[in-house]
Amino acid sequence: MDQATLVGPDVNAASEALVKLDEANINPQVALLALFPEYGDWRFVLSSPKLDKIPLRKAHLEVAEVMRHFAYTMPPNMIFAENDPFIRALKKTFRKAANVQGMRLGGQTIGDRYLEAGYVFRVK
């Protein structure tokens, strides 16, 4: 299967998107670009206690509203609950790391998901 290549502008755009989400008080605890084999393209993965408190559809609408005026085209968003096995495993793996921004992942199972490739922005 052909894979979408992660290039500089995608990383820069995702970094800027994370700033916008923080400004909107969404404050994701986990943010990464991920390539899951079941989708075949990159996803902007987010997890936030604030988004956990509302229905998933509304959470997607809140993120979409922040991104609506964003200058870049972003990959589709995936919002995970804080207690999702994938998010819990990420937090357990990176909890002692001083800085995870820029870490690359891939070719591994994390929690209950196989990750072909990933670029981490934040894991708190």
Describe this structure in words.
It is built from four helices and seven strands. It has helices at residues 8-23, 49-52, 56-67, 85-94; strands at residues 30-35, 42-47, 77-79, 104-105, 108-110, 113-115, 117-123.
Q: Give me the number of helical elements.
A: 4
| Low-confidence region ranges | none
What is the third-level CATH name, the topology? Answer: GMP Synthetase, Chain A, domain 3
Encode the helix/strand succession as letters.
Answer: HEEHHEHEEEE
Helix content: 25-40%
CATH architecture: 2-Layer Sandwich
Overall geometry: globular
Summed up:
With 124 residues, this protein is an alpha+beta fold. The protein has helices spanning 8-23, 49-52, 56-67, 85-94, and strands at 30-35, 42-47, 77-79, 104-105, 108-110, 113-115, 117-123.
Keywords:
single chain; 124 residues; alpha+beta; GMP Synthetase, Chain A, domain 3; five-stranded mixed sheet; two-stranded antiparallel sheet; 7 strands
Write the layout of secondary structure elements.
Layout: H1 8-23, E1 30-35, E2 42-47, H2 49-52, H3 56-67, E3 77-79, H4 85-94, E4 104-105, E5 108-110, E6 113-115, E7 117-123
Parallel strand pairs: 2-3
Antiparallel strand pairs: 1-2, 1-7, 4-7, 5-6
